[in-house]
Write a structure and sequence with these properties.
Number of strands: 0
Largest sheet: none
Shape: globular
Oligomer: single chain
Distance between the termini: 47 Å
Number of helices: 15
Radius of gyration: 19 Å
Helix content: over 70%
Length: 294
């Protein structure tokens, strides 16, 4: 048992495989989904969002990330058995049957459906549009080198819903902030994808890391640069104060640091850099608060 494995330590043994199926034991992805959404809630509210919205969108981010991970493991159960990093996942290792995983998936969708009653009609339609995106993402690596784009679209969708639920509109500036977040995710998830390049080549699946090959640093730097440009434009169009741009400058410096550390010859650094993007998400919230309140 890992020292930090709270699932093994605190949950009933029969719950463990379900918790791991939806990655409750690996919350980094949930935070990376939630943090930009919280920043959008702040910008849409021009300050502090309501506690009710914070709770609804936090639960929604946790659930949709869980749905995405569950679907990924269902579709990839045969592939995962051939990769050292994933061969102990609940479906691949036999801890869960496919039937039980499907029941669990339906249960998560049901709870997501209950959340629809907590948001406005505009946001409900956006939520419905998100479902096929989440479903198709796990299949994308079978036919495109750009699955990270679909991942970024789906897992930052809450930013658009934050605006639609708060303002009942999604202005162009909010779309720019969202596109910036999508490109940011393409960048940091490409860093992580370099861990699995050799396995992906062997199994015939695709990723941006395979597309970028030896030019990864240049490509990822380009995505990060576009992210900063879009966040600067979006903040200006929304009417953020000067403090917003000061914090965005800090984020730009963080991206420069990431690219100075990233190396194709040192894949052991990739997960550390992937995790470091939680700091970017926190800084984006700080930027939104500072730009709204100062």
């Amino acid at each position: 048992m890992r020292p930090d494995d709270w699932v093994e330590r605190w949950l009933p043994r029969s719950w463990g495989p379900y918790a791991r199926l939806c990655r409750l034991d690996r919350p980094v992805g949930t935070w990376l989904t939630l943090l930009p959404c919280l920043a959008a809630l702040v910008q849409a509210a021009d300050g502090w969002p309501t506690l009710f919205r914070l709770i609804v969108f936090s639960v929604g981010a946790l659930l949709m990330r869980g749905v995405g991970c569950t679907l990924n493991d269902i579709f990839d159960r045969d592939i995962d058995s051939k990769v050292e990093r994933t061969r102990f996942r609940p479906l691949t290792s036999g801890q869960l049957t496919l039937k039980n995983a499907l029941y669990f998936l339906l249960g998560q969708f049901f709870v997501c459906g209950l959340l629809l009653f907590a948001i406005n009609e505009y946001s409900r339609w956006l939520a419905v549009l998100l479902v096929p995106i989440v479903i198709i993402y796990p299949l994308c690596k079978r036919f495109t080198y750009w699955p990270q784009v679909v991942l970024g679209i789906g897992f930052n969708w809450g930013m658009l819903m934050a605006w639609s639920d708060t303002q009942n509109t999604v202005p162009l500036a909010a779309v720019a902030m969202w596109v910036g977040a999508v490109l940011w995710q393409v960048g940091y998830d490409s860093i992580y994808a370099y861990v699995d390049v050799q396995d992906d080549l062997r199994l015939g699946v695709r990723s941006t890391a395979m597309r970028f090959a030896q030019n990864g640093k240049a490509w990822i730097s380009g995505f990060y640069t576009a992210t900063i440009a879009l966040w600067v434009y979006g903040g200006a169009a929304i009417g953020m104060g000067w403090a917003y741009f000061a914090v965005i400058a800090v984020i730009a410096g963080h991206f420069v640091w990431q690219m100075s550390v990233f190396s194709l010859e040192r894949p052991d650094r990739n997960f550390m850099l992937f995790r470091a993007n939680m700091q970017v998400g926190v800084l984006l919230i700080v930027a939104a608060l500072a730009g709204s309140l100062i």
